[in-house]
UniProtKB/TrEMBL annotation, chain A:
PANTHER family: ABC TRANSPORTER PERMEASE PROTEIN, BRANCHED-CHAIN AMINO ACID TRANSPORT SYSTEM PERMEASE PROTEIN LIVH. It is found in: Cell membrane. It comes from Thalassobaculum fulvum. The keyword Calcium does not apply. The chain crosses the membrane at residues 7-31, 51-78, 90-109, 129-158, 179-205, 237-258, 264-282. GO terms for cellular component: plasma membrane. Keywords: Amino-acid transport, Cell membrane, Membrane, Transmembrane, Transmembrane helix, Transport. This is Branched-chain amino acid ABC transporter permease. It holds the Pfam family BPD_transp_2. GO terms for biological process: amino acid transport. GO terms for molecular function: transmembrane transporter activity.
UniProtKB/TrEMBL annotation, chain B:
This is ABC transporter permease. The keyword Nucleotide-binding does not apply. Keywords: Cell membrane, Membrane, Transmembrane, Transmembrane helix. The keyword Glycosyltransferase does not apply. InterPro entries: ABC_transp_permease (IPR001851), LivM-like (IPR043428). The chain crosses the membrane at residues 38-57, 89-106, 118-138, 169-188, 256-281, 293-312. It comes from the Bacteria. It is found in: Cell membrane. It is a multi-pass membrane protein. GO terms for molecular function: branched-chain amino acid transmembrane transporter activity.
UniProtKB/TrEMBL annotation, chain C:
This is ABC transporter ATP-binding protein. SUPFAM superfamilies: P-loop containing nucleoside triphosphate hydrolases. It comes from Thalassobaculum fulvum. GO terms for biological process: D-alanine transmembrane transport; L-alanine transport; L-isoleucine import across plasma membrane; L-valine import across plasma membrane. InterPro entries: AAA+_ATPase, ABC_AA/LPS_Transport, ABC_transporter-like_ATP-bd, BCA_ABC_TP_C, P-loop_NTPase. The lineage of its organism: Bacteria, Pseudomonadati, Pseudomonadota, Alphaproteobacteria, Rhodospirillales. One of its GO terms (cellular component) is plasma membrane. The keyword Transport applies.
């Protein structure tokens, strides 16, 4: 029993990272219809910038804040310089552009930083907390807490603020949104900035546990994409559930079956779900209009 | 009859002729043996990409997992001779049959999905294959890879009195196979099946109403492209005499799709151009050392932003505009 | 002899009834028009008959056989063909290829043979090309054969869709607003074309807004309003039906209303 609880703890911790990556996918997808494969690089950048700013003498909170802001700026630039210019391109073309961006960012990180594995100190030390026979790291609690805060804040943003409603309106019907005077270019920029910031935050929270390096982004992007599709692309709640599910599946597979196949298990489940529900768990099914 | 022979040369003949000329003439300009090797790699990638032209260009379906089939073909050539005592050439055929069969099995449910859902499902499939290859070390040698038997063609030619260098032999063999692959794909394009594939690309509902069994045709495109990828993987394993699970990984899938789209996904010649550029480019970019990835990513982005239909179609349009 | 019979057909979208309890029949060589104000459910009805939507209620019979819910390609095999209100042309293909694709049922064969370019494949392609060029001539597009479909005008695309639908050699042809967006000359031509198709023994089902065209060529008119059939009969009789007049004038007292009055 305590074993299962232990796997649940570790599953929820990585699941929270995936959920934040999936949320980043979801926000950009809703605003622009683009699946941004560079989402994983935002997480990597969040971790790496914090590492190097901290090493250069900045206090950890300042380094983390710098990482989030800088990554958000990179996200906005990506939108401005690449995505906006490729408007109306096909799904495959857009996927290739974002993959190009991800290779570019990885190369830049390798050049600007280095090829080593890095971490920085946990926020509240590394003494495990015992709960019902299992243990959890304080940093895991930070991770879960951070994810919860992000989801709650976004929920409020989208339901309470005018800007948030403008984003939702753009996601729903871009032309109609433009007609009622919403600046959809701004909404796009905002979505990329927001997604990048959320990714960077995930990197800041996770790096003390998972470590980071210049090439950490690809795997995260795959998992986050998978989580978003599992939940149903475009649905933030689906991103949360999908992320946590992927994390839990991985942790239990690694614990009970084989850690070699922990990545496989998540994809097996996703394939099974998609075969039964082609729109993911919480995706809307659309009737083709002719 | 007049319309059929109105044109002096068909697009199919032109494409084959251009490919043949390029393959035949290029060696005259090779400064060293190394270029035969690069040419071989271009042809082998070109073969997989030609298969993806059928899937992406004709039928309009995405796959981010075709490296999985390349991996299957590669490991068939590695394992067949060791475990089944099959000659490498027969192992290649066996790999192709297995890949086609597997594509037929997984394609049925996968191809019901559309857009990004199809992308993640094929991606998942590719990840699973590469994971099995990496993890079942007792069979595959794991991440370190395994040696692959010699195809034996060179020895055969030698005993017939023909002496040819290994690099050169592979160049001509891969070039020939690419030509054959291109010929098949071009046959398909203007055949009844090709029309069915291209029609469902543009409008599934209209394709259905003219009687196209959309699921069946998507599946056949998926199987065809899987066989191409498998043969390409086999050739790569045989020419390298070594194989690692990397051949099946996500980045290789992406590379293949990028080659397909970069040159222009609709046509065989466009895809061959994509294979040429993206195979040769890293060879050139290694000179840039640590800047390699940055430049590579940048080129991918720039081409797709400014030439979203791919190089050849965009150039074609540009030229037409100049002329008129 | 009844070719198509529709009985009590209905469908709901998100709890809202779009079409309900619609029934009528169609015979070879006759033109049946389905008219009604915008949003009356005409296209939805077509989509159910042609298998694009799965009806929630009712039956569709071809030759007396129940074909409700069969996939569009299965219905095509039974001789049903159609055009679309919002064009569904194969835009990346040439005009000729569009019509050739329409002959899929006659030309399809083994994909392996097609890959290998066997003589049988080439023969099928040649026959298809001949038939397709003849059809292009019939709709007046023979000179555009080699052009990309996306380069055609709206009216030409409408005719291209008709040619593609005819390529399947249908026994039952569903035309969804074939004259929409066409100028009077083009409308006249389409008018004559539809009459000629019917004269060859094809059962034609027509959705059309141009009342003059409907009244002129229809043998039978079915009137829908709010998803239900409110009248049917000969064109003249329907035009005088007070319920029909009210549906049109009540819904939107515009040009359509006065046209419906004849």
């Amino acid at each position: 029993m305590s074993e299962l609880l232990q796997f649940t703890f570790s599953g929820l911790t990585v699941g929270a990272v995936y959920a934040l990556v999936a949320l980043g996918f979801t926000i950009i997808y809703n605003a622009s219809g683009v699946v941004n494969f560079a989402q994983g690089e935002f997480v990597m950048l969040g971790g790496m910038i914090t590492v190097f700013a901290h090493a250069a003498g900045a206090p950890l909170p300042a380094a983390a804040a710098l990482a989030v802001v800088a990554t958000a700026a990179i996200g906005i630039l990506l939108n401005k310089l690449a995505i906006e210019r490729a408007r109306g391109a096909s799904v495959v073309t857009l996927i290739i552009i974002t993959i190009g961006a991800s290779i570019f960012l990885r190369g830049a990180a390798q050049l600007g930083f280095d090829k080593q594995l890095h971490r920085f100190p946990s926020f509240s030390g590394d003494d495990p907390i015992a709960i019902a026979g299992a243990t959890i790291l304080p940093q895991s609690l930070w991770m879960l807490f951070g994810a919860a805060v992000v989801f709650a804040a976004l929920y409020l943003f989208f339901t309470r603020s005018l800007t948030g409603k403008a984003v939702l309106a753009t996601a729903n019907n871009k032309l109609a949104a433009q007609l009622v005077g919403i600046d959809t270019d701004f909404v796009m920029a905002l979505s990329f900035g927001l997604s990048a910031a959320i990714g960077a935050l995930a990197g800041v929270l996770a790096t003390p546990i998972t470590l980071t390096s210049y090439d950490a982004g690809t795997a995260l992007a795959l998992k986050g994409f998978a989580a978003a599709m599992l939940g149903g692309m475009g649905n933030p709640f689906g991103a949360l559930v999908g992320g946590l599910l992927v994390g839990l599946i991985e942790a239990t597979t690694a614990g009970y079956l084989s850690s070699d196949y922990k990545d496989a298990a998540a994809f097996v489940v996703i394939l099974a779900v998609l075969f039964a529900m082609p729109q993911g768990l919480f995706g809307k099914s659309a009737q083709e209009r002719v | 009859m007049r319309p059929l022979f109105a044109k002096p040369i068909s697009a199919k003949q032109a494409t084959l002729l251009v490919l043949l000329l390029l393959i035949a003439v290029a060696p005259a300009f090779f400064p060293s043996n190394f270029y035969y090797r690069v040419g071989t790699l271009i042809f082998i990638n070109g073969l997989a990409v030609t298969g993806l032209v059928v899937l992406i260009g004709y039928a309009g379906q995405i796959s981010l997992g075709h490296a999985g089939f390349a991996g299957l073909g590669a490991y068939a050539c590695a394992l067949g001779p060791v475990h089944l005592g099959l000659p490498p050439a027969l192992s290649l055929v066996l790999g192709a049959v297995l890949s086609g069969l597997l594509a037929w099995l997984v394609g049925r449910p996968i191809l019901r999905l559309k857009g990004h859902y199809l992308a993640i499902a094929t991606l998942g499939f590719g990840v699973l294959v590469s994971m099995v290859l990496a993890n079942e070390a007792w069979l595959t040698g794991g991440p370190d890879g395994m040696a692959v038997a010699d195809l034996g063609l060179r020895g055969l030619l030698k005993s017939a009195g023909i002496k040819v260098g290994n690099a050169e032999l592979w160049y001509w063999l891969a070039g020939l196979i690419l030509l054959a692959g291109a010929w098949l794909a071009l046959n398909l394009k203007d055949s009844p099946s090709g029309r069915a594939l291209r029609s469902l690309h543009d409008s599934e509902v209209a394709a259905r109403t003219v009687g196209v069994d959309v699921a069946r045709y998507k599946l056949s495109a998926f199987v065809i492209s899987a066989v191409y990828a498998s043969v390409s993987g086999s050739l790569l394993a045989l020419t390298n005499r070594f194989v690692t699970p990397d051949i099946a990984n996500f980045l290789h899938s992406i590379e293949l799709v990028t080659m397909t789209v970069l040159g222009g996904a609709g046509t065989v010649i466009g895809a061959a151009t994509g294979a040429l550029l993206l195979t040769a480019l890293p060879q050139v970019l290694t000179a840039l050392q640590e800047y390699e990835h940055i430049v590579f990513g940048l080129i991918m982005m720039l081409v797709m932003i400014f030439l979203p239909d791919g190089l050849l179609p965009s150039l074609h349009r540009l030229l037409r505009r100049r002329v008129s | 002899m009844t070719l198509l019979s529709v009985e009590g057909l209905g469908i709901d979208f998100g709890g809202v009834t779009a079409v309900d309890g619609v029934g009528f029949t169609a015979e070879p060589g006759r033109i049946v028009s389905v008219i009604g104000p915008n949003g009356a459910g005409k296209t939805t009805l077509f989509n159910m008959i042609s298998g694009v939507y799965l009806p929630h209620r009712g039956r569709v019979r071809l030759d007396g056989e129940d074909v409700t819910g069969l996939a569009p390609n299965r219905l095509a095999e039974r001789g049903l063909s159609r055009t679309f209100q919002n064009l569904q042309v194969f835009l990346r293909m040439s005009v000729l290829d569009n019509v050739m694709a329409g002959r899929h049922l006659a030309e399809r064969g083994s994909t392996l043979a097609d890959l290998l370019g066997l003589p049988s494949t080439r023969r099928r392609s040649r026959e298809t090309e001949r038939a397709a060029r003849a059809l292009l001539e019939r709709v007046g597009l023979e000179r555009a054969a080699e052009r990309e479909a996306s380069a055609l005008s709206y009216g030409a695309l409408k005719r291209l869709e008709i040619a593609r639908a005819l390529a399947a050699r249908p026994r039952l042809l569903l035309l969804d607003e074939p004259a929409a967006g066409c100028n009077p000359v083009e409308t006249e031509e389409i008018d004559a074309l539809i009459a000629a198709i019917a004269a060859e023994g094809v059962a034609v089902l027509l959705v059309e807004h141009d009342m003059k065209l409907v009244m002129k060529i229809s043998h039978h008119v079915v009137v829908l309003d709010h998803g239900e059939k409110i009248a049917e009969g000969a064109p003249e009789a329907v035009a005088r039906d007070p319920k029909v007049v009210e549906a049109y004038l009540g819904a939107h007292a515009g040009r359509e209303g006065s046209h419906a009055l004849g």
